[in-house]
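Kindly inspect what follows.
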Amino acid sequence: MTENIDITKLFIGIELKATIFNLKQLDENSELTDLPHLALVGRSNVGKSSLLNCLAGRKSLAKVSASPGKTRSINLYQGHDYKGIPLLLADLPGYGYAKCSHSERESWRKLIEYYFDNAQGLKGLILLLDSRIAPQDSDKEMARYALNRGMFLVPVLTKVDKINQRERSLRQNEWENILNITPLLVSSKNRFGVIKMCEKMLELLEISV
């Protein structure tokens, strides 16, 4: 597959199917989470909503907020690829927001752990990392957590349109030294690297293109 392929042919008709705030709601939506899917996770304000909108080819699928920490739920989005094969993406709550209370962080932790333990269809974790800042402890912790659980991890550096080539290489090298995985470079604004990320996502979902 090459970079001239229309991104909208890879993830078609994506719609929000479920918003999950607690363990009971997660159980009620097990039919969705048992489907083969990937999860998007990252620090608050890393650009998850913008990336979802980019994948959907729409501006309003996921609400983009200037205030970090707004997403407090697991949001399940479902669509299909150009062959009609169903695709599911789970948008997990952003972490690392300093103004969250201890009880909020604990509630988030329990929800995410329960999701990881019970989502039978989870094929991998797309870890979004802000390319503008040095590796953060919370990101390292999430990566270690995923790898220790045996998850397939795809690190993605977001907002690369805001930094130069030298900074991109620096950030990639920093994370490669930490994870032994070279992060992908992506910009939701100009769609740089999005096709390459989609290729990896479809590979994890075992969908040929």
